[in-house]
Amino acid sequence: MRIVFTGGSGKAGRHVLPYLRDQGHRILNLDRVPLGADGIHDLKVDLTDSGQVWNAMTQLFDLSDLDGAGVEPLDAVVHFAAVPRIGLVPDNVTFAENATATYNVIEAAVKLGVPKIIFASSETTYGICFAQGEVLPDYLPIDEDHPTVPHDSYAMSKVCNEATARSFQARSGPDIYGLRINNVIEPHEYAENFPAYVADPDLRRRNIFAYIDARDLGLMVERCLQTDGLGYEVFNVANPEPSVDLGTAAIAERFYPGVPFKAEMGAYETFYSIEKARRLLGFAPPERWREALGMGARPE
Question: Which CATH number is 13's domain given?
Fold first, then answer.
């Protein structure tokens, strides 16, 4: 596929883009800083400028296109670019840049007739991650039907982006899939961070005791690219096991007293349900962190 990918130089994108490249896709990375990866062309773009977005999607991928057919239609647009959390810039800038960039990207893709649009939403939409104090979920596990009541400017922008995407899909008809991505973990972060999570599981409360390996996020995008005809959908994205060395019952008893269970859960299953992605996309990421720390298989 010919894919325009925004934010490919960020924490998630720098792992997702090589994965997609290795699946045989041709990719143009739109970002403020270059990724510099072999086989992927970088284009410096301000996504809050709709003219720049439109031009970026309607020009040559790279100079090799001069010997080909010229500008060709896009098969997909994947939009990951964003201010990645609160506390990096003023809150109003976080909201404005994220909402405007997403509008510009989806609007251009829809008007150009791109048949597949994938965009990054967030775990924060459920109102737990960046809440003031502690907020408990309405039920467990948290699935895509759980209320989204954002408590911060970043989560607000993501909920707004979902409404934007749903509205564009309703009036135009392409497949638009939103990914409610949990805490992204790069391979080197297992050794750096997970021993502390094992020692103090409370450190993972705001992430609903979940995570997504950056490499498996590439798998999720690929499954979205290969699955057609769903219209507008949102999907939780996480690895299948909790990010702490506790089972389901122990986590629920310690951190979620009185919270009802909506569905039966396995003994070591993520509280950030990925059942919908499994069912509709065939998303089946592996368990990661115990092996990365050399801890062997989890107890049965």
Answer: 3.40.50.720
